[in-house]
Amino acid sequence: MYEKESLTHQSKKIPLCTKCGVKPSVYFRxxxxxxxxxxxxxxxIEFRVERTISRFDMxxxxxxxAVAVSGGKDSLNLLRILWRLEEKYPKAELIVAxxxxxxxxxxxxxxxxVKESCKQYDIELQVxxxxxxxxxxxxxxxxxxxxxxxxxxxxxxVLRRRALNQIAKRIDADVIATAHNLDDIAQTALLNLIRxxxxxxxxxxxxxxxxxxxxxxxxxxxxxxxxxxxxxxxxTEIKFQSIPCPYSESxxxxxxxxxxxxxESKRPGTMFTIYKTSLNLISAKVGKEEEKIRLCEICGEPxxxxxxxxxxxxxxxxxx
Length: 320
Ligand SMILES: [Zn+2]
Ligand SMILES: [Zn+2]
Fold this sequence. Notes:
This protein is of the alpha/beta class. It has helices at 2-11, 38-55, 73-86, 107-121, 130-134, 138-144, 152-170, 182-195, 198-201, 226-235, 251-266, 270-281, 309-318; strands at residues 27-29, 34-36, 64-68, 93-100, 124-129, 175-177, 210-211, 216-218, 290-291, 294-295, 302-303. The strands form 4 sheets. A 5-stranded parallel β-sheet has the order 5-4-3-6-8.
């Protein structure tokens, strides 16, 4: 009996790749039913990123692209894909933009991986630190704002966005590419729905509205699920920062992540549906219209309000 069973087990073959029909599959994609071999899997991700770029008209043939790279798997995957695509567009240029928030034993580790990749691909790296820009590291900000309402992530998010924009302006980039994945987008969409924040809801759109003074932001990685991003990093043997940031995200986002992961495993395709529905909800105008904007009375940077969000937070941080 025992022998018979182990024999049947041995004769069970690994299913072949449904795309090429030749090689054994290494990945099953629940939402499409595909089984993919290593090379078809890698190709499919690259193809999808390229399709997103052209569908949303993200780059021009001669764009100077600042790629925001944190040192995590998503941004290093995106960098590798853009670097490969760049071969087809010899007039386009990639520059890596990294923000050093000043998180001890975390960001410095991650930046090592960024530096290694830049060296490997021969791409220029520009780093800007919170310390340099705001006079404080995130660690110092966290201590100063310990008893305040906002979480470290809220401060960090706003300050990092400004820092990225500063790097992009400094290197004269005409677009910033960030590596938000499908899970990030679906989470943000639900988060803003639940909070009732329709203004921020439009930030899930893959290209930002053109606003004077802000370098345009695009999300070429927005159709890649987190799970596939992890598989891609594994198959391409990318070295990346795998420990999570010590400042955990908002409790609400964590709840939504857990909920979405459960929905996705029970009902494959849920995240894609949320993404596509969000695109339909956001007016087609987004990303095309040039918005008029005023300048912040304190820092002189573009802002929709009299005093920009960055200066508001900095004022609050330095109050104590
Ligand atoms: Zn294949
Ligand atoms: Zn300001």
